[in-house]
Amino acid sequence: MRWILRMGEILLKSRQVRKFMRKALTRQLISQCEVRGAKVRVSPWQGMLFLELDEGDPEQVEDAMRHTFGLTFADPITSVAVDAEAVAEAFLSEIPSEPRTTFAVQCKRHGQKQEWNSQTFAGAVGAAILARAPHLKVQLKNPEWAARIALMPEEVGILGERIICPGGLPTGVQGTVEAMLETERDYLAAWLVMRRGSRLKILDGGNPELFNLVKLWDPYHLEQKWVSKLATAPGPGHIGEVWARVGDSIPFPAPESTSNVPMATLEPLVGWSEQSLNELRVKTESISAIA
Q1: Domain-by-domain residue ranges, the chain?
Q2: Structural contact between residues 125 and 131, judged by C-beta atoms closer than 8 angstroms
Q3: Which of 96, 110, 173, 191 is disulfide-compatible with 197, CB 3.0–4.6 A?
Q4: Domain 80-159 fold
């Protein structure tokens, strides 16, 4: 089984930074799959990543994607020849069982332009579908059934149900931040910092349930073998160097640092409404949201 992965914010960086972050994301994603019992291969192409399952359950891989920062979303992909008739046949074989009367073909081209562009191929596929299923009607704005296609030079990818991922930057690319996880607010603030690319250094004395939630998002904290494998920092000599602290429960003042960079205090929850916090609880799978 294969997926197309979208990276979002990483693509806005310079070529050198983008390459560094993509490699960090790949290591993190492969590790996330491995700790869940799956083995995968990841390869870059045209600003995207392709992930292929070698061993394990697709559900394990999709859970790993949902817990990997740096990914915005993922689409399961089924490969079909670059042929409108073959694509129409493949779609109609998978059409939902419940009655559907309207559809749209949503096509995006990737790679160099070949015989087709996205609009002409979508039109050809739509015509082939109508020829086989004349009871259907085209509705581009709000269809009951969307046939989603990735048009590539050597294949057409039929896309399955989209998997929403957390976005942000890959864990570790922005260095290390200390956190004390005593309360849910500590965890929510720490999660936001992780989403911005920082790896957490968890101080002793916190709530083990909250620490277990952090482990879902970063295998670095599971066991020693992941520490060296996932160690990442924004430059040589910075791995493990703490540059900030986050959380309401963390003791202050901060200890003296030998670093040339002053210790920062991060307060990402300042100004958040209760409604916004509730939405964040769902995203972070916090204890309150689960309960």
Answers
A1: 2-72, 80-159, 176-290
A2: no
A3: 173
A4: VC0802-like (3.30.2130)
- Report residue 180 as tokens: 């004390």
pLDDT tens sequence across 167-210:
999 999 999 999 999 999 999 999 999 999 999 999 998 999 99
d(CA 58, CA 1): 7
Helices 184-195 and 274-284 cross at an angle (nearest 10°) of: 70
The amino acid occupying position 180 is M
Q: Quick one: tokens of 182?
A: 């005593």
Q: What distance in Å separates the CA atoms of residue 39 and residue 30, rounded to the nearest whole number?
A: 7
| Res 154 pLDDT > 80 | yes
Rounded distance, CA 114 to CA 120, Å? 11
The answer to whether the CB of 17 falls within 8 A of the CB of 6 is no
Beta-bridge mates of residue 5: 49, 74
Closest alpha carbon to 27 in 74, 68, 56: 68
Please state, in angstroms and rounded to a whole number, the distance separating the CA atoms of residues 4 and 2: 7
N- to C-terminal Cα separation, the chain? 34
| DSSP calls for 224-267 | THHHHHH---SSTT-TT-EEEEE-TTS-SSPPP--SSSPPEEE-
Q: Tell me if the domain spanning 176-290 has CATH number 3.40.50.
A: yes
d(CA 29, CA 63): 11
Full-model pTM: 0.89
Q: How far apart (Å, rounded) are the C-alpha atoms in residues 36 and 59?
A: 10
- In CATH terms, the fold of domain 2-72 is Alpha-Beta Plaits (3.30.70)
The closest of 12, 7, 11 to 26, measured between CA atoms, is 7
Name 138's bridge partners.
Answer: 103
